[in-house]
Amino acid sequence: MNASTLIQVSPDELEQLITRAVEKAQADKPSGGWFRVPAAAKYLDCSDNALRLLEKRGLIPSSRIGRSVVFSREDLDKFIRSGGAA
After folding, report:
1. 4 lies in some domain
2. Cα(37)–Cα(43) distance, rounded to whole angstroms?
3. Which of 23, 30, 79, 86 could disulfide-pair with 35, CB 3.0 to 4.6 Å?
4. How far apart are alpha carbons 82 and 77 in whole angstroms?
């Protein structure tokens, strides 16, 4: 049996929740063909840890932009085309 919970928030609180959710979604969104770890893992339909393991084993190359580890869409697509188990 599923239980439902109803919460009440003010219009201002709702706006803040939506703003934070949108900002988080945009932070993980690929930019210019580059994915951060969460977006790359989602693109491959695997966990963040599985992606990092593939990277560590040299199966998927990564780069750094500042302090962020990023993956190119091209490299992810090559991995998929090669039959990589994601």
Report:
1. no
2. 10
3. 30
4. 9
Q: How many residues does the chain have?
A: 86
- From the number of C-beta atoms within 10 Å of its C-beta (0-12, 13-18, 19+), residue 44 rates as buried
Torsion of CA 62, 68, 72, 75, to 10 degrees: 20
Q: How many domains does the chain have?
A: 1
pLDDT in tens, 41-53: 999 999 999 999 9
Q: Look at residue 13 and tell me if it is in a domain.
A: no
What is the span of the domain harbouring residue 74?
Answer: 31-86
Closest CA to 60 of 71, 46, 44: 71
Token pair 């599985």 in the structure block, residue: 50
What pLDDT was estimated at residue 48? 96
What's the pTM value of the predicted model, to 2 decimals?
A: 0.61
